[in-house]
Amino acid sequence: MSWLRMGVLVCLLVVLSAGFAQAGDQDKTTTKEKKYPVAWGGMGATFGPGGMGVPAGTLGIGGNLVYGQSDNVRIGNRSSNDSSKTTKFNQIFKTRYGIMDGLDIRTATPFYNTHLSNQYTPNRDVYGIGDTAVVLHKRLLNQLKGDPFSVAIDLGGVLPTGSVDAHSADAAGNSAWGFITGLGATYFYGANRFDAEVNYATFTMGAKNYEKGDRGRFNFAYAYALNNYLDLGVESQWEWNAQSQYLGNNQHNASSEWYVGPKLVFKYMPWKTFLGVEATMPVVRWYESSKVGSDDFRIEVKLIKLFNIGSLF
Fold first, then answer.
1. Distance of alpha carbon 295 from its chain centroid, rounded?
2. In terms of Cα–Cα distance, which of 131, 181, 177, 128 is closest to 154?
3. Mean per-residue pLDDT for 140-156?
4. Is residue 95 within 8 Å of residue 61, measured between CB atoms?
5. Residues 286, 255: contact at Cβ < 8 Å?
6. CA–CA separation, 236 and 234 (whole Å)
7. From residue 44, how far is each of 198, 236, 272 by CA, in Å?
8. Phi and psi torsions of 21, nearest 5°
9. How far is CA 263 from CA 43, 194, 278, in A?
10. Where are the alpha helices (DSSP H) in the chain?
């Protein structure tokens, strides 16, 4: 991992934070009453909180179940051949905790299980635990308190929790450290909700002399609260990966993916529980080298349960 890149990213966050803090100093009227039902935020596995946060003293536990399937091998922006088929069933265990007003901490640990079948080679199963992301999420602006929109920054890292054996996948986590930074925004207009966020991650050398390439993500979500129980919406998830390195040599496996699709969310506040279902399809896919397991579609389910356990501050 390049420490120069890390320094540049931190400096950019400081500059952006200063600009948003100045904007937040303007006098605005505080909204105390909600006239519309409130929609839930992004529900994709890679989606964070945008510009919102977790209330102080609230613990959230849950995660995502992701099913994906592919029927071909791809290179560039096209199908290369139909020799391989892949079925994925991944789980991402997530926690959220509101440390104090405007500051929370979040974790995400992936568990993956992939079955690969090939016409010319024996079938193979890839499974294991990925590296865990731990992120501090600091809200800078809050629309619910009179700011024009909500804005927050993320700063955290990747912990080397990934399993490393004959069945593991280096791309999902190879017991490497990492650094993550991001910026998110949320805007409410009546019962409409808009979320956008961008984040960037860079990694150290992990096991097997393998170093994952830098990763960038840009997510966007729209949701409309039909009532206090149901939301309808759509999400867009774009991800770019730089080429990885093995023994210091570039592997020429850079990639870019963009998935879009509708979602339905059920909210039951007496139980403080949120359940969402989403189906996405690829809009753009590009791979520098042959890619096995590029999802032709994804179906995701997300469940989060909130608990009031008290604030530390």
1. 17
2. 181
3. 96
4. yes
5. yes
6. 7
7. 14, 9, 19
8. -65, -40
9. 8, 14, 4
10. 3-24
Rounded distance, CA 133 to CA 110, Å?
9
Residue 33: pLDDT band with limits 50, 70, 90: low
| Contact criterion met (CB below 8 Å) for 151 and 184 | yes
Quick check: 164 and 129 in contact, CB under 8 A?
A: no
Distance CA 235, CA 44 (A): 8
CB 294 within 8 A of CB 286: no
Distance, in Å, from the CA atom of 76 to the CA atom of 288, rounded to the nearest integer, reads 6
Is residue 281 a contact partner of residue 257, using CB atoms and an 8 Å limit?
no
The span from the CA of 236 to the CA of 241, in Å, is 17
CB within 8 A of 74, min separation 6: which ones?
A: 80, 285, 287, 290, 291, 294
- pLDDT tens column, 69-128: 999 999 999 999 988 999 999 999 999 999 999 999 999 999 999 999 988 888 999 999
| Residue 105 token pair | 């901490």
By the 8 A CB rule, do 67 and 222 touch? no
The 3-state DSSP class for residue 37 equals: coil
d(CA 305, CA 45): 16
Q: Please give the pLDDT value at position 92.
A: 98
DSSP string, 92-107: EEEEEEEEETTEEEEE
